[in-house]
């Protein structure tokens, strides 16, 4: 093509695009539209990537359901995920069978990315009733490298259970306990890692922000979620013990997770795991006790602060963590940065550390576990319900 024809083609594309952008009422809305378009396009570009998990698990589950009669396939224990996620694979293999397999499988998680960003927007809007910060928070989520990596490149579903947690935090923020606990239950029905938010819920329970008689809503959601699989023939005992089976599957102290166990040889697995679990449980109860003894009220800022601590310290001190298990911390660190702009670097450190975990380079994962540990210490140190004599001037 000649230079003249190239310019003509560029002009033919550019003119309608400019007219579209100019039709928006303000520059911020324009940036939002550009951000959403870019977020969708980059996900579509990433979709063809076939991760190890896709090849050996997701694609095979899809094929199993397709070859075993669709819904009736759910009576078999062909996957180690809970039925909640397998229902989506069922939809992908039946109702969406006309789409490319890899797109059908990844579509839910990529869509939920935007729902997670919406709840982030709602939480940040509570901090800034006026202004554009909530829109920028929305964009920060959908354009986060780890968010894109997780759903579009790997086809993982961490955005789904994390969205349940972010929705839970939003409803707690507006003091709606039932939707909050239902949201947490939804997250837990997809992945056990939703329990990373449990320290916050315990704190709110002892501070009387959550009524104990609403707690059965959490297991009730899980039980309802497994009923279709049970009705089609899968044993209820097996459905209730899925997470116990998952816990015994991998014998690694840290599977790509940038936490303290990067520095301990896996030869000590049998010794370190029970010590790490005991340490974690003790730390949770200590944290809950300290906050319980504090006379300070759980304000909105403190709620976000404690939520960030909760989802950051759990995967950092727990053994047997994967690199993806810092996903809730990735999202909460962005919200934290908007609530406490002085400490925006917290989100940068968490995002970078998590991203290098996805890349899978052992030396970088090990090295980045150090600044991540410092960040966890710093965030905890600046929380005035934990260190009342060192009130942070946010």
Automatic annotation (TrEMBL):
Keywords on record: Membrane, Transmembrane, Transmembrane helix
Membrane-spanning parts: 28-46, 58-78, 84-100, 135-153, 160-178, 184-205, 212-231, 268-291, 325-344, 356-379
The UniProt record lists the keyword Membrane: yes
Transmembrane among keywords: yes
Protein name per its UniProtKB record: Mannosyltransferase related to Gpi18
Taxonomic source organism: Nostoc flagelliforme FACHB-838
